[in-house]
Design brief:
Elements (H helix, E strand, L loop, with lengths): L1 H14 L9 E6 L7 E6 L6 E5 L12 E3 L5 E5 L3 E4 L4 E6 L5 H7 L13 E4 L6 E9 L5 E9 L8 E10 L9 E4 L6 E6 L5 E7 L4 E8 L3 H4 L4 E7 L5 E10 L2 E12 L4 E11 L7 E4 L5 E6 L3 E6 L10 E5 L13 E6 L5 E5 L5 E5 L11 E7 L45 E4 L6 E6 L6 E6 L5 E7 L5 E5 L6 E8 L6 E7 L2
Antiparallel strand pairs: 1-2, 2-3, 4-5, 5-6, 6-7, 8-9, 9-10, 10-11, 12-13, 13-14, 14-15, 16-17, 17-18, 18-19, 20-21, 21-22, 22-23, 24-25, 25-26, 26-27, 28-29, 29-32, 30-31, 30-33, 33-34
């Protein structure tokens, strides 16, 4: 009990002012030229964005902006897939060449571009390790196959200047869809799910980032006739800010017919599963690189279609597809240099607004000022936010860093329901040990103090009970067998326990 209280007070003392502001500074830009070129730092710490213009490192340009701040909103580093650069705009130690091979030289040796990424570069804080981050990124090899790699960065190293401690670590070797990564916090309030869709199929690989490992893939096959009857490519994915809904935008060519489909699924952040599939179909001969974003209150989905129209859908409507309202149409704006202001990617910012970049890379963002409001009250304004420099035609990818545990859920065992405990591993009052873990045959659960009269239950990732046993009072261990269980994540529950209920995670392998 005293150990637990000490850990809690230590966490509060170290992070009492923590606000989970990992997405509060965006970094974008385009090449090292005069005029509207160079780097732009967009800072949301004051609410409305504040801009800083800076000189980009040599041969550095963005395709997709990708940056991370610490929990207090101070920029840590940014990357273009070729180099990792700290807040002082210095390449950090070991911070180059993340995907060796032919395409690395093509993507990274040009002076104004970065690695060709389409919503598939992502940085997450390593749970339980303040100042450490994991960077997920694509890798194109010689046979035009996109793999997924990751690197580990320690910004505590070199007196805060940072160091890449591991890189070119293979995460997935199978085909990756465009617009791939979808991050969301696990229901325990600490770990992170990374959802990777497969190209041409509604099959999704879930990976779980924990304090000491990356688990997975846990494959969720949502393919059926309706979703796979036409060939299609995926564009973007999005998780609602409340973590309850996952959406994927796809594009299908069928002869001269083009149409977008938006696949919607309910998301279980504890189990890492999808359910209740729905599909919205939008027919339009000009359908192309469409994009979706979801309002802060998770009610309204915004969908730009064909780079010229912006629709709003009410996700709480009985018929979501029929709730579509046109809230904006491209007004024909171009910059004095002749570059188009057509619609493209969107991102929800910390100030509650949704920003949209343009297709050809201009120095303007479009803005949805009140995305929680219905219809035209959402206040969409075109070329509304002028940047100091040109921004490329992509937006940064961030999860909702202010989303924590799922209260009263089976996986809610850490008490992490606010920023105060972010990055801190919290002990429970009870000490139970699962061994081995991961396991594939025999599992022992043991305790330092003898069992009291309690019931042991084990649930699979879908929440189904797969094992139950009344522990024998006065004993110190119990053995059960998992050799016939499907590989995956299981949750072991003991109730009652000294803290009411104890829950632990068990990994069953092949």
């Amino acid at each position: 009990m005293y150990k637990t209280l000490f850990c809690l007070f230590l966490g509060l003392g170290a992070q009492g002012l923590s606000q989970s502001k990992h997405d509060y500074v965006w970094v974008t830009g385009y090449g090292n030229f005069t005029g509207h070129f160079g780097g732009t730092q967009i800072d949301f710490n004051q609410g409305e964005p504040q801009f800083t213009h800076f000189e980009l490192p040599h041969q550095f340009g963005f395709n997709m902006p990708c940056s991370i701040s610490d929990e207090n909103g101070h920029l840590q580093f940014y990357t273009n897939g070729c180099k990792i650069v700290n807040a002082s705009h210095e390449i950090i130690e070991n911070g180059e060449v993340f995907c060796s091979g032919y395409f690395q030289s093509i993507e990274c040796d040009e002076p104004i571009y970065g690695y060709d990424a389409y919503q598939n570069m992502l940085i997450l804080p390593r749970p339980g390790h303040r100042g450490q981050y994991v960077y997920f990124h694509p890798c194109l090899n010689e046979v035009d196959k996109t793999q997924v790699f990751y690197a580990e960065i320690d910004m505590n190293a070199n007196n805060g200047r940072g160091k890449v401690i591991e890189k070119q670590q293979l995460l997935r070797d199978t085909a990756l869809s465009q617009g791939a990564f979808a991050p969301v916090r696990h229901g325990n309030g600490r770990d992170w799910w990374i959802i990777l869709p497969r190209e041409h199929h509604n099959i999704f690989d879930f990976y779980l980032l924990t304090p000491d490992s990356i688990l997975g893939p846990f494959t969720r096959d949502m393919d059926d006739f309706a979703s796979s009857m036409y060939g299609y490519t995926g564009w973007n994915t999005v998780v609602s800010p409340d973590g309850k809904l996952f959406a994927r935008v796809t594009l299908t060519w069928l002869g001269n017919l083009r149409f977008n489909r938006i696949f919607l699924y309910d998301l279980d952040r504890c189990a890492g599963t999808l359910s209740n599939p729905r599909v919205i179909t939008v027919l339009d001969p000009n359908a192309y690189a469409s994009w979706a974003a979801i309002s802060p209150n998770s009610r309204y989905m915004y969908f730009q279609m064909g780079q010229t129209k912006l629709y709003q859908f009410d996700l709480q409507a009985p018929d979501i597809e029929a709730s579509r309202v046109l809230v904006g149409e491209y007004d024909g704006f171009t910059t004095p240099q002749g570059f188009s202001g057509q619609f493209h990617a969107m991102a929800l910012a910390p100030n509650g607004k949704i920003y949209m970049c343009t297709t050809s890379g201009t120095y303007y963002y479009h803005t949805i000022h009140a995305p929680d409001e219905p219809g035209l009250a959402c206040d969409f304004r075109q070329h509304d936010l002028e940047l100091p420099t040109v921004a490329q035609n992509m937006m940064p990818l961030y999860p909702n860093f202010r989303l924590y545990d799922v209260p009263n859920a089976l996986c809610d065992t850490l008490g992490i329901n606010s920023p105060e405990f972010e990055g801190v591993n919290i002990d429970t009052e009870c000490t139970f040990k699962l061994s081995p873990n991961p396991a594939n045959n025999r599992v022992s659960i043991s305790t330092r103090d003898p069992f009291t009269a309690a019931r042991l239950r084990v649930f699979n990732a879908a929440g189904q009970k797969v094992y139950e046993y009344d522990l024998i009072e006065g004993t110190f261990s119990h053995v059960f067998y998992v050799d016939a269980w499907a590989p995956g994540v299981y949750w072991v529950s003991i109730e009652p326990s000294c803290s009411g209920r104890w829950t632990g995670k068990l990994i069953v392998g092949e």
